[in-house]
Amino acid sequence: MHFYRSGNVPAILFCLFLLAAFLIRRPWAARILQLCLALGAVEWGRTTIILMQARIEAGAPFLRLAFILGCLTLLTASSLFVFRTMAVRRYFNMITEKPNEVTIRDEWRKSSVD
Fold first, then answer.
1. Residue 36 forms part of a structural domain
2. Which residue, 47, 55, 61, 105, shows the most beta carbons closer than 10 Å to its own?
3. Is residue 76 a contact partner of residue 37, using CB atoms and an 8 Å limit?
């Protein structure tokens, strides 16, 4: 919403691309989303520091701002761990499992039935 209000059309288009990246079930799409989340966490951290410094210099209270933006930074950074779950790894075809005995047995049963 902030990009829309400021008229930053390239940023709006990039955000729409990121939304579309969720529909692309490829590992590279997941990596782009992870990279953007990591950069977003860094940006939240940078913004927190800049705004805290401005508040401190102005003699204004800054603890609430630090707490809220610090929580946003941690939430954004912790969102990266979602990509380690099996469901997300399956969705983006990021599973590189070695076939285990059960998988081999199931494959053998399927081929013997056909």
1. yes
2. 55
3. yes
